[in-house]
Design brief:
The protein is α+β, with helices and mostly antiparallel strands. The chain is about 25% helix and about 30% strand. The two termini are about 25 Å apart. The chain binds zinc ion.
Length: about 375
């Protein structure tokens, strides 16, 4: 099926996380020259499609998610009825990331590939917890001894022009909750209270936007970003019993959870406190000179006449799971400006170029 009509079909499925609304069956039928494995866990459905081209050689995979976030109110066109207006196609998932899926599904059809195996990994559990999605497929592939050597995740990566950005890694994310303990009391008798806000006030500057590791060639600086701070019971005559500060750190591989723990513990020296740290996702970096990064760079340059910037900006994605399994992974897709927004839209010309980039990558790998 031609790319654009396939994209229209995929956009009609109401695949709200973690539902695929029948889209995965539809894709498996569309690519019947590929062997299909449905990997289901805890009500989440994932699809692995794989085709052997030779006995020995490299295994290249494309990956993405069929699930989308809730559309929200206020759309000009129905979010699950793709509507073409001018040069754009409007629908929930147009950018994030059914255009990426439709592009690689189109690119692999009747393609010539010199490696051993091409696979497509499609999950319906990315926008939520992502517990039973791509991770489960990779476990399955590992058990079957068929993990790919290289993977391209087709998330929307471009910033202002299609072709300007390839992602070669992602920052990690640590969530933290720090509680400073005190003793509540009457505001007129501060000597009888232990005021945790007063105790911590002079130290707050060493937390707020504090740069733990500087920016380097591949990663933005790793800083502490406060997301919530509260203490007290909203009364002007009672001092607080506790001060609770929540923060997040998006970090490069140069900072570990243990480093952060030591920093905060030192900062809180002399105070009674508790600290809860959780690693959300781990950081990873694929070498700029790796085969996958080099080949993708060449294909993007050829189709768009641009030299894409290779960076690690933005939030997390399923690419981190590939990195954990030792797969050399990069990400490339359409412009990300309207992802998760009302009136999400993709440029049709950009989508068609994305199909060509993936096709070129496979044929020249
Ligand atoms: Zn996405």
């Amino acid at each position: 099926m031609k790319g654009l009509s396939l994209l229209n079909e995929l956009l009609r499925f109401k695949s709200l996380t973690p539902k695929d609304d029948g889209a995965l069956n539809y894709i498996a039928l569309e690519l019947d020259e590929f062997e299909a494995f449905f990997i289901e866990k805890e009500g989440v459905k994932n699809l692995l499609l794989s085709k052997k081209f030779a006995d020995i050689g490299e295994h290249l995979a494309f990956a993405g998610h069929i699930d989308v976030v809730l559309p929200g109110e206020g759309w000009d066109t129905p979010p699950f009825k793709p509507t073409q207006k001018g040069d754009f196609l409007y629908a929930r998932g147009a950018v994030d990331m059914k255009s990426g899926l439709a592009a690689f599904i189109t690119a692999v059809q009747d393609v010539k590939f010199k490696g051993a195996r091409l696979s497509l990994i499609i999950t319906s559990d990315e926008e939520g917890e992502a517990k039973f999605g791509t991770l489960e497929v990779l476990k399955f592939m590992k058990e079957k001894n068929m993990l790919p050597d290289y993977a391209v995740v087709a998330e929307p990566t471009c910033e202002s022009t299609f072709g300007d950005t390839v992602k070669i890694g992602r920052r990690g994310s640590i969530n933290a909750k720090l509680t400073i303990k005190g003793k509540q009391g009457h505001v007129a008798y501060p000597e009888k209270c232990i005021n945790p806000v007063h105790l911590f006030a002079s130290r707050l500057a060493q937390l707020a936007n504090y740069e733990l590791v500087g920016k380097d060639e591949n990663f933005e600086a790793s800083r502490i970003i406060i997301t919530d701070i509260r203490g007290g019971i909203e009364l002007s005559n009672v001092t607080p019993n506790e001060l609770c500060i929540m923060f997040n750190v998006r970090h490069s591989p140069k900072l570990s959870l243990e480093d952060l723990k030591q920093y905060v513990e030192k900062l809180c020296e002399g105070l009674e406190f508790s600290l809860d740290l959780k690693q959300g996702s781990k950081p990873f970096l694929t070498d700029k000179n790796s085969k996958i990064a080099t080949k993708l760079f060449q294909s993007v340059s050829k189709i768009t006449d641009l030299s894409p910037n290779l960076n690690t900006k933005g939030g997390t994605s399923d690419a981190r799971f590939f990195a954990e399994f030792g797969v050399s992974v990069v990400e490339f897709g359409v412009k990300n400006e309207s992802m998760h927004a009302i009136n999400e839209r993709v440029s049709i010309a950009d989508f068609e170029k994305l199909c060509l980039v993936f096709r070129d990558l496979i044929e020249n790998f």
